[in-house]
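Hey, resending since the last one bounced:
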Amino acid sequence: MHKPKVIVKSSRYATAYEKASRLTQHQLEQNRAIVRKAKATKLNEFELINELHNLQAIVVADLEPDEIHWLRQRDKGSITKHINGGMPVIGLVLDGELLGMALLAFPENPEAENVDDYPIPKGEESTSMIIQSFIVAPGLRKTGAGRKLMAIIEEQAIIQLRPNLYARVATDNNDSIAVFQGTDFYTTGPKVQRDHDKLPNGYLANHWHKVVNMNPKLVRPPVVIGNAMKPARVRVRGISRKAPDNTRHP
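The structure tokens again:
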């Protein structure tokens, strides 16, 4: 397989770019610490197009020949088109270094790419969002990096008023499957046959779906009445516990 040319920054986070199977236990612990310190956030995308493209190349270079279909690499023009369409890009960042990413596509947006064949019910396109190019640096697999990215993706689902999240994952991409299963996604619809320019017979993929809770705050802030601060109604795991009878509620 042709390995694309990549540029890896020389930094104290170099172990994040190593193949996980080559890392020592100490290096794996270092990478878990990196993930704990890293921040998942919506990116100021135009300043990071080169970094977004380069991280994809790093991940592709790490894949084995029979794994090449796990990531459909987007070129800089495609990433720019996505951003120009007003669609979010999420990144896992530490000290200005990009360690993970995901593109979030709006299925009805004319600038969105590769959004065909998703099992989105007619009329729900404007409340749906498709997760694409969901990747982390090779050495950060199985460190919690994917879950950290997913938490911000769900936050974006709330901000964008798009509770229906969808993704398409190859049936043999066990690392990605573990992330989606672990964050309460479920498969929907039949397996689909997908084409790939390096695989004559293509590959099989599943669609994954999750409906995000659009009101995730479990505890309301206290209510200020005059100069006194009174406890508000508290919600825990869907159970409502009333405050004392003499407490007023909004």
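Residues 55 and 137 are 7 Å apart (CA to CA).

Sorry for the duplicate.
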